[in-house]
Amino acid sequence: MHDLHGNDTIKVCVYFPPKINSAGIWESKTSSPSVILNYSLPVLELHMTLAFFVTQLVHFILNRLGVGIPLLVSQIITGLILGPILMLANVDAFKAIMFPPDFGIEGIDSIAIFGLTLFLFLVGVKMDVKRAFKTVKTAKLIGFLSFVLPLIFGLIVFGIMGDKNQSTELTAERVAITVTESLTSVSVISCLLSELKILNSELGRLALSSALVGDFSSLIVFSAVSLDKNWSKSIGMALLNVGGMILFGIVLVFVLRPFMFWMIRRTPQGKPVEDKYIYIVMLLAFGSVMYLHLLHRSPVFGAFLFGLAVPDGPPLGSALVDKFECFVSGSLVSLYVATTSMRADPMKLFADLAGVQFSVILGVVTFLAKFIGTFIPLFFTKIPLKDSLAFALIMTSKGIVELAGFSNLKDTKVIQDPNYCVLVIGVLLNSTIVPILVKLLYDPISRKYAGYQKRTIMHLKPNSELRILACVHKPENVATLIGFLNTTYPTEESPNVVYVLHLMELIGRDTPMVIAHQKEMISGSSYENFIMAFNQYEQNNCGLVTMNAFTAISPPDMMHEDICTMALDKQTSLILLPFHRKWSIGGSIETENNAIRKLNCSILETCPCSIGILIDREDASTRMLTKSPSRSSCYSVCMIFIGGKDDREALSLAKRMSKDTRLSLTVTRFVSGADSKTNYMLDWDQMLDDKVLKDVKHSQTGEYGEITYMEEIVRDGHHAAEIIRSIVDGYDLFIVGRRYGVQSVQTQGLSEWSEFPELGGIGDLLASTDLQSRASVLVVQQQHYVDVDVDKS
């Protein structure tokens, strides 16, 4: 029987043929009912059931505390509870039931390690490798420091507390503990981020990228040490191991991954992957495990690497997760963690006080070294203090991988029982405290999509591409969005990249999914019409526009997650959202969908970039749609400017549109009487307003197209409404800032009769049926990026 984690062989004598499963009710009537436990399968089921129920009981009790204790903590506590109970139960009959001679703890360990292997495989499957490898320089530095600094300081502690006359076994034990404590496991951090529901946040992605760099740094160091060790023994064996690992990587990337993409191409869009492909992938996964076992490497690492090669998401990755995750995470992982922590005997802590002291000091020093080493670089890149602290805590987290490493060291007799117990308790404390502190520092609901980079139109570099995410609910949204996109004036120097996301409600018991449509495979799909329309828009713009189409199928309450995640993934500067109300050509309300309104409000609160809610009126939409590059028709746009960041973002978009000679832009600034005379420079916001308006005031021609600038002195909101009524029929499109919650003289009183507060005072007025307007409206909100200075104060 093999320990599949550490490549050590344990010889166990068993009866032949092995007694696996009982005959149930057909057993001998004279036999005791306990005879069923003479078979290995019922014993395994007993252990799994015991571990599962005790784990769930402990987790239920801990959840009553209301602090969000992870399941791993409950699993470790289960082992610490069951271990002493089983050890203290010296009754022979009890031992015979729990650990029969022909199915001892080694057999249970093998099943548990099988569960660990499947668990790490699924962790790899769920991880987006492309996203994780898109690391910034900061992530590379942090990832490297997260491994090197704890290792250096750990070795310093080892040197200070060591003794020249200490035995070789003690030296090996302390070096092994130092190295293992220095590790940064991307699997553990991925699980923690998933548990905290911040895996798709900017902070979560940075942590995942840094952890991946840290993992590969440790892999390089370990490979170099292993190569040096094998080289001194046998040059041929060393070269064989290195060549075998290189071959494994090449086959993984250039053979197996393309083969799995071939499976995906063979699966019709929107349909589940066939079972035969699932079985083939699992066979390949176990083949990877056995291959690394033959190379004297950790087989569970092979399962994780193969999992990384599996394309994440639907249809293949999600099918694997759906099929196996419940059983693996619910049963096999509980069994593994419980059996691993059962071997930690707190009664032996006093057997080696010097060793225990070394382990405790080393654990504290490596924790502080990793915490400080990951906190300082991030803090000096102007990330807010609380977020930097939360990030550093995430990078210090420990979990099932560290437990597996300590268990392997105990199996190979490298570390002794007292140190093993300290290390398991250290993982328990870390897994308990770190998630609680991260939740206190980083709110996953309000800050999940908070950005540290400014993804706005206003902050785009000159002549850079404009990335837009256009959301489609119904077929009538297509003409509206294409009509507006026609006004954004893409050029060769400043092209548009448009991501079209078709939002569909999840019906029945189907699995939520995001489908990436391939242009060559559109024909015959249920999404053909809307994709063809956007493809035609791309072709009409002669290579100035790049279009990518997706369909997200999810419950209405989760649609904003799909939108925000894609905006973060694609690094868009603007999200276009259709308004929930549709007007007929005659100006009356045709349809109204409150679910879309709720979705729009959710995105306004959480979005990682700027947002535009497009209120379409049929006449204006038709004029936008016909303003193609081959036509010379003029399209009139009015931008109403009062002040603030939302208005500045709206003006930045309007100025980009004004470069089109077929579009005339009028910028109307509403100022109060005091502002028009003396108060322009009273605060920072007004200084920024004047800066963004400077080129509009003094340069009606030049960089931009035809721009007319005017100022209107406004006494209050009622006066502003009168001015808007007087000009509303002269334009095809109004662009305004949302300015939600911003108080000013110019909008005073508008909120009293507001129908749609999410549009702001001016936006709500322009969307009102009382105005009897035929013009479309775009309400713009600038990205709520993290204000570093405010956060630090």
Automatic annotation (TrEMBL):
Q: How does it sit in the membrane?
A: Multi-pass membrane protein
Subcellular location, record wording: Membrane
* Pfam families, per database record: CHX17_2nd (PF23256), CHX17_C (PF23259), Na_H_Exchanger (PF00999)
- What are the GO BP annotations of this UniProt entry? potassium ion transport; proton transmembrane transport; regulation of pH
Kindly list the GO CC terms recorded for this protein: endomembrane system; membrane
Task: List each copy of the Cation/H+ exchanger transmembrane domain by range.
Answer: 57-438
Concerning InterPro entries, the annotation shows: Cation/H_exchanger_TM (IPR006153), CHX17_2nd (IPR057291), CHX17_C (IPR057290), CPA2_transporter (IPR050794), Na+/solute_symporter_sf (IPR038770)
**GO molecular function per UniProt:** antiporter activity
* Keyword set includes tRNA processing: no
Gene3D superfamilies with a match to the protein in the record? 1.20.1530.20
Keywords (alphabetical) are:
Ion transport, Membrane, Potassium, Potassium transport, Transmembrane, Transmembrane helix, Transport
Record-annotated Cation/H(+) antiporter central domain positions: 497-618
Q: State which residue ranges cross the membrane.
A: 39-62, 69-91, 111-129, 141-162, 237-256, 277-296, 316-337, 349-369, 389-409, 421-442
**Could you tell me which residue ranges the Cation/H(+) antiporter C-terminal domain spans?**
635-783
Q: What is its main location?
A: membrane
Protein family membership? Belongs to the monovalent cation:proton antiporter 2 (CPA2) transporter (TC 2.A.37) family. CHX (TC 2.A.37.4) subfamily.
What is the name of this protein? Answer: Cation/H+ exchanger
